[in-house]
Amino acid sequence: MEVRPLGKSALQVSSIGLGCVTFGREIDQETAFTVMDRALERGITLFDTAEAYGRGASETVIGHWLADRGTRDRIVLATKVAGSLTAAHVLESAEASLRRLQVEQVDLFQLHRFDPDAPLEETLEALNQVAERGWARAVGCSNYSAAQLSQALALQEQRGWARMVSVQPNYNLVERDIEQELLPLCAEQQIGVISYSPLGAGFLTGKYREGGSVPAGTRFDMLPSHQDIYFKPRGWQVVEGLRAHSEASGISMLHLALAWAIGQPGITSVLIGARSTKHVDQAFEAEAMGLSPEVRAALNAL
User: Which residue from 102, 151, 248, 290 has the fewest beta carbons nearer than 10 Å?
Assistant: First the structure.
């Protein structure tokens, strides 16, 4: 596994990162501790969470793990602020996250998504204050379009504020919109790209069929809004094409989809969600397996 610089910052992150959305929501603290132990043991250093994950439960679990294991200086700790991005909320959220995580500083503090109702200048000034107060070593954003990121970077440069070092987009074999504008912008501006959902919330594992029922307890059952993203003609076309490649090669759909995402150019780190240590190991198996140029081209063509 590679260690890569995150944008222009001094942060170095692992090519596979641990997305901690499941902690306190889908798995309990004991299981989360086991997952984090395995991730760190295998070389994952980027741990990404958010105040919105389990309404703070994910951050709380990570805070207990950091205190129990004494591992703060071994990881790059990232979190996010959600909701209304007024200055007051950004600063309050940052303080609350630090309390739950039991740390004085996170490595990366991100805006979870663009807020059209809050003045961007107000949001970015507050983000700058988070950095100036020493609450975060670097700042970034998540779910921003190329236009939104470009606007933010221009304002930060004009005001001399802390600059975005990274963006966190959804990216997998179905959701590839970032290839058009966001990835080229990030390459030009030296912005790190931390992609998430390489398996499309489980859609690309092959467990779903068009017109079939949604298994109880799956991500699409717990968060039906995911169905709007993937249960559409293009999504079914991709998943059935991936199934055909899997059957022809003898390689699981899961490993093919993960290997594709981890090896895509322009991506700094790929976040994996895990409910068990098996999910951590699968990502490393996929990275070690890799894809030949021919197979990658065939999957790209889907």
Answer: 248
Residue 246 lies in a domain: no
Sign of CA dihedral 247, 249, 255, 257: negative
Cβ pair 111, 81 in contact under 8 A: yes
- Over residues 92-114, the pLDDT tens digits come to 999 999 999 999 999 999 999 99
Q: Please give the residue range of the domain that contains residue 51.
A: 3-201+262-290
The pLDDT tens digits of the residues spanning 197-232 come to 999 999 999 988 887 777 777 777 667 777 888 999
pTM (global) more than 0.90? yes
**DSSP classification of residue 197:** -
Between strands 136-142 and 106-111, the pairing is: parallel
Give, in order, the Cα–Cα distances in Å from 231 to each of 18, 34, 212, 257. Answer: 26, 33, 11, 17
Does the residue 22 lie in any domain? yes
Q: Say if residue 116 is exposed, middle or buried (CB neighbours under 10 Å; 0-12, 13-18, 19+).
A: exposed
Q: How many domains does the chain have?
A: 1
- Is 231 contained in some domain? no
Residues annotated catalytic, as ranges:
53
pLDDT of amino acid 220: 75
Q: What's 128's domain CATH number?
A: 3.20.20.100
